[in-house]
Amino acid sequence: MLYAILCYAHEETVFAWSKEEEDAVMARLHTVQEPLARAGKLGPTGRLMPTTAATTVRKGKDEPLVLDGPFAETKEALLGFYTVDVDTLDEAIAFSKQLSAVNPGSTSYEIRPFYVFHPGEMKT
Predict the structure, then answer these.
(1) Which family does it belong to (predicted)?
(2) CB neighbours of 44 closer than 8 A, spacing ≥ 6?
């Protein structure tokens, strides 16, 4: 089963880290990620730039509006994501717990099952 694991964080904390702090966190995360990567169960991962770098296309009355930023009413923001192909939700939860233990900037990890959509291909 494919799962997206979404990492939420307080941007002001994460983007204030020194290079040394950033390198230390990334090294700890790499240690947690490596077993899944070796097993071929870790797909693409990514860190998103801060919401101040975002652009939002929002439905408008007549046509879509293009806005700077997401204008989210939240203290935490989506920082990045993992994709994993694991057998059970419990395995995705265990991986998320490990990530949480080594990432001082994260506030939560949201796990969602998903399927890969390839335009033009029909799946039954």
Answers:
(1) Belongs to the YciI family.
(2) 83
